[in-house]
Amino acid sequence: MDNRKIGYILTTGLVALAMGGSALGYLTGGMDEALAHLGYPKHFVVLLGTWKGLAALALAAPAFPRLKEWAYAGLAFTFSGAIVAHLSAGDGIGSTIPPLVFLGLTAASWALRPAHLTLAPAASEPSPMARARA
Fold first, then answer.
1. pLDDT tens, 85-102?
2. Cα 109 to Cα 114: distance, rounded to the nearest angstrom
3. How many domains are there within the chain?
């Protein structure tokens, strides 16, 4: 097993495990007070918890590259939104460290994913790099 594959497994496993645990906290009410501090209403907490749980399952699945792309995008939105929410609530720069770390782990997982889990451009469509050169 090469270093790239090990890196992918570790980063993906950490993100999936953390998001699964986070989803449980959100859905069981364990995070209600902290999220209320950020101004999130209860119905949004349930929605976030559901999305995080589904993202964890998508990342842990051994296939489904398109579904994984959606999970990566959703987590990037979630973590960047958490950074803004903490700063807006006056929590200070230190509160942005956990979402920044998980944003980095998510980006690393995405960048290290094996070729069979990437989306190839459609055959009739030029790649973004080819369009940029044109």
1. 999 999 999 999 999 999
2. 10
3. 1
The answer to the question of residue 100 being in a domain is yes
* Gap between the Cα atoms of 22 and 26, Å rounded: 6
Asked whether 74 and 57 are in contact (CB, 8 A), the reply is: no
Domain, as residue range, for 26: 8-114
- Note the pLDDT tens digit of each residue in 29-56: 999 999 999 999 999 999 999 999 999 9
Contacts of residues 72-75 at CB distance under 8 Å and 24 or more positions apart, as own/partner, are 72/106, 72/109, 72/110, 75/15, 75/19, 75/102, 75/103, 75/106
The verdict on residue 128 lying in a domain is no
Geometric angle at alpha carbon 119, from 56 and 53, rounded to 5°:
10
